[in-house]
Amino acid sequence: MKVSNSQFLNNSKPIIKKLINILSESYSYVSVLGTDINSKRYAVNKMGILIGDGFLGERGFVVRVHNGVNYSEYSFNEISEDKLNSIVDEIKSKLNKVSEFNSKNSYEVINEEEIVQSYLGEVLIDPKDITSEEIINKLIAIKDEGLSYSDLIVNFNIAFETSHISKMFISNKKDLDQSYIISQCMMFSIARRENNTKYYYDSYSGLKGFEVVEEAKANVKKIVDQSIKLLDAKSVEPGEYDVICAPDITGLIAHEAFGHGVEMDMFVKERAKGAEYINKVVASNLTTMHDGAAAIKDVSSYLFDDEGTIGTDTVIIENGVLKNGISDLLSALKLGTIPTGNGKRESFERKAYSRMTNTFFEPGNDKVEDMIASVKKGYLIEKMYSGMEDPKNWGMQCIALVGREIIDGNLTGNLISPVYMTGFVPDILKSITMVSDHMDMEGSGYCGKGYKEFVKTSNGGPYIKAKVRLG
């Protein structure tokens, strides 16, 4: 079913256009982003039930104007005919002051093409058509099923989060709106034997509604079994190994290696080594990597970004060669490049940065069973914990939950946990020798810019065989 647009934004559009007309008499560029996101989270475990706001919820507007030197912004969350004059006065009194200073950080005026376009997403089950009581009862039933499989399961957590995202972008030449739903469901099975406690998880997400909970329900037993098996997991003997990375780990590598590493606002600040390697070999020729709102259909797909740039499919690495970065509008202006539609804000009150959307490696031609058979001694790595990357020096660390031992081309059933993967980004990517013909995406997490500015992203790809250092 089609997702409905925000009535709040629809009702606000005429007065926003009037605001833009008034401000355009004083400023050479004016735009307004309007945001209305209804976000809810439901969680259940043995200890209780939680119903609350999701992370993404917000409602408000941000005005961007060219102040004569560069760009200034003003955010607010209420608009009406009665408030219009006071908003104009606030903008003029606060934003004009910057033009009084001789700033080296100057930007040219944005030259826009005329675009009028809208997008409405579709879901199978709209969460607003289900009561909170029905949602909680469904989660309780799944939790109880998880707890029923073994006395070793001390808790089973399940959480469902859904966000109805509506945005509009208005300027003198653009009239854009979009409305879509993203949802995710995560399950954690916690097992304990004596003083040893382990957990295993799985997540389901996408441009979907309540149907993600049905997807999760089908895998309860698998999650429970894996959490119990982890009670026997050992630590890895540190060293360099051939590994097969499952799609979520492949995605984590893509995200950390040449996701953050090619955010082009870091090019402007001279904080990214990737700027020096455009059109140079940085990976195996089996490696092609994409990012973009239009690159694949997942949680970070949209018609336009938070600066009114239409989403694209950016080929970052093509057959091992670094080709492009991802940019917000102002970084592209400064660098003289074409913006890629990667300008994203944590909220309407926050600055837009160059941010990842859907980041992934393309699938190849290999079969997973052949990849495993090719490993003499190594591991199949799955279930990402977290990752870190240094864009300036290209060091990377990825932490995974599970490593499955491979000896003489066979999975032995022995596990290691947790798994720390480290290395120099080009060394890891150049070591890729096999790429599977199957790929998956994972979009249940959030991405920070450094330690803040969290936004929704997805990442993924195929299984890959590479050589990495484990610890």
Q: What is the strand content? A: 35-45%
Q: What distance separates the N and C termini?
A: 48 Å
Query: What is the count of structural domains?
Result: 3
Structural class of the helix and strand makeup? alpha+beta
Helix content estimate: 10-25%
Keywords:
Peptidase_U62_metallo, 471 residues, 5-stranded mixed beta barrel, TldD/PmbA_N, Metalloprtase-TldD/E_C, 23 strands, 3 domains, 8-stranded mixed β-sheet, alpha+beta, Double Stranded RNA Binding Domain
Describe the fold and architecture.
Belongs to the peptidase U62 family. InterPro entries: Metalloprtase-TldD/E_C (IPR045569), Peptidase_U62_metallo (IPR051463), TldD/PmbA_N (IPR035068), TldD/PmbA_sf (IPR036059). This protein has 471 residues and is of the alpha+beta class. The chain folds into three domains: 7-41 and 50-119, no CATH class; 126-162 and 181-230, Double Stranded RNA Binding Domain (2-Layer Sandwich), CATH 3.30.160; 239-470, no CATH class. Helix content is 21%, strand content 40%. It has ten helices and 23 strands. The protein has helices at 7-23, 81-95, 132-148, 211-217, 220-229, 247-258, 265-268, 329-335, 368-373, 425-430; strands at residues 30-45, 48-53, 58-66, 71-76, 115-120, 153-171, 174-193, 196-206, 239-245, 289-291, 314-318, 321-322, 343-344, 353-354, 358-361, 377-389, 395-407, 410-416, 419-424, 434-442, 446-449, 452-456, 458-470. Strands 1, 2, 3, 4, 5, 6, 7 and 8 form an eight-stranded mixed sheet that branches. Strands 9-16-17-19-23 form a five-stranded mixed beta barrel. A two-stranded antiparallel sheet has the order 13-14. A hairpin with a 4-residue loop joins strand 3 and strand 4. The radius of gyration is 24 Å and the shape is globular. It starts with 6 loop residues before the first helix and ends with a strand. 49% of the residues are buried. The model has no long low-confidence stretch (mean pLDDT 95).
